[in-house]
Amino acid sequence: MVRSCFGTAHINPCREDANDDHQLRSLWNVPKPGEYKPYFDRYILAHSRQSDIIGTLEKQLPKTVTLFAARSEEDGSLRYALDKWNVNEALGHVIDTERIMAYRALRIARNDQTPLAGFEQDDYVRGGPFADLRLGDLVEEFKIVRAATLAFFRHLRAGDWTRRGVVDQKEISVRALAYIIAGHELHHRRILEERYFASAPARAEIA
To answer: 29-196 belongs to which homologous superfamily?
Structure first.
């Protein structure tokens, strides 16, 4: 019988370590102090009761897409205060941050010991095209980025998850970066729900 190489959403049965699911899943547990700088506690501890970070990343996607499904293109320009990003810029920031964190995880997982620099989020938003884009196009971009993030993390070997590198002069692990991606997305989704959309009635769906 030919063995399928697709397997479940989490495990690739054609990997050499595919039979050691328990060991691999144990590495998806919440990272320990010392695997990241304390600044990231607010993102990592948001999922402190999780033991399956890949499952968490999978479940987030439809929740975020649903949040925008009832919004109009005009909602992309909403701000909850004059000095805050608009909806398009906030979503663009989430997309950029996920790309950067996943790239950091890639470098570290591949045992690249080159120290990596930090980034200034406000500069990235100012330098980005988000205010000129359609909200619907940004939602589609987020879906593509999350799919790429999931494909990358699903294919990591057991030893890759706890590998560490240096980012912004601080040590960080691959699994910490996975939790930061999830926690950062949740943080901004809650802000969108509670500050941007709570007082703005849903209008025509974005196309």
So the answer is: dinb family like domain (1.20.120.450)
Residue 198 confidence (pLDDT): 87
Q: End-to-end CA distance of the chain: give it in Å, rounded.
A: 45
Residue 206 CB contacts under 8 Å (≥ 6 apart), including other chains: 68, 69, 71, 72, 73, 75, 134, 135, 136, 139
Report the C-alpha gap between 149 and 193 in whole angstroms. 24
Residue 153 and residue 175 in contact, taking contact as beta carbons nearer than 8 Å: no
Indicate whether 2 pLDDT > 60. Answer: no
Gap between the Cα atoms of 15 and 189, Å rounded? 34
Interior CA angle at 47 toward 66 and 138, to 5°?
Answer: 35
3-state secondary structure (DSSP) of residue 128: coil
Cα gap 90→122, rounded to integer Å: 10
171: phi then psi, degrees, rounded to nearest 5: -75, 145
Indicate the pTM of the whole model: 0.85
Q: What is the pLDDT of residues 150-187, one digit of tens each?
A: 999 999 999 999 999 999 999 999 999 999 999 999 99
CB-based contacts of 108, cutoff 8 Å, min separation 6: 163, 164, 165, 172, 173, 174, 177
